[in-house]
Design a protein that fits this description.
By secondary structure, the protein is mainly beta. The chain is built from one helix and eight strands, in the order E-E-E-E-E-H-E-E-E.
C-alpha cells in the first residue's frame, strides 16, 4: 500500500526477535482515539467544553496469505500480546497489541486473503 508515495506495511516481532510482515500487503491502517470528558466552567456559557482523558489505538491489516499466516492464527488463538510495528516510508508506529479479529478468505484459483484487527494495549511510540 502507498500513502503519499510511501510504502506501508504491518509487522510483528516473533519469539526470535525478528520482524515478520503479516502477509502480502494490500492495506494497513492506524487509528488513534482519545476519550473526551465534558467539563463545565463559569466561562463556557451555553457551549460545551471538553478535557482529553485516556488514549487508545488500533491497527488493521488486509493482504494476501503467506506461509507465516499459520503463526498469526496461533497468536490469535493463544491470545498473545505481541509487539507490532506499522511502517510508512521511514516512519514507524510501534506498540504492544492483541489480535482482536482475524479473517481468512479465498476463492478458487486466487490467492487466499488475510484480514486482521489489532487492539493496542499501552502506549504507542512514533519514530
Amino acid at each position: 500500500m502507498a500513502i503519499h508515495g510511501k510504502d506501508c506495511y504491518l509487522s510483528y516481532q516473533n519469539d526470535e526477535g525478528e520482524w515478520v510482515v503479516f502477509g502480502g500487503e494490500k492495506t494497513c491502517s492506524f487509528n488513534g482515539s482519545t476519550d473526551m470528558q465534558e467539563c463545565a466552567s463559569p466561562d463556557s456559557g451555553a457551549s460545551r467544553e471538553y478535557v482529553p482523558m485516556k488514549t487508545g489505538w488500533t491497527m488493521a491489516f488486509e493482504g494476501l496469505l503467506l506461509d507465516s499466516h499459520t503463526d498469526v492464527m496461533l497468536l490469535w488463538m493463544q491470545r498473545r500480546k505481541i509487539l507490532v510495528r506499522m511502517t510508512v516510508g521511514n516512519e514507524k508506529k510501534t506498540g504492544y497489541a492483541y489480535i482482536s479479529s482475524v479473517n481468512e478468505s479465498g476463492t478458487l484459483h486466487e490467492m487466499g486473503r488475510l484480514s486482521l484487527s489489532l487492539q493496542g494495549t499501552g502506549p504507542v511510540s512514533f519514530t
